[in-house]
Predict the structure.
Amino acid sequence: MRSLLIVLALVALVLLIVGVAVETLKFLLYIGLIVLVASAVLLLLQRARSRAQR
């Protein structure tokens, strides 16, 4: 009975860690997309400014 409780505790711990990791990866994916869009906008603005100065 004691070994069953230990196994259940380990499974619960692994599931908790996996759940937190998945949520963190989702958050980082959204942050990465935001940074990508922001860098694309800044690149377009820089190119527009360099053409306007010519």
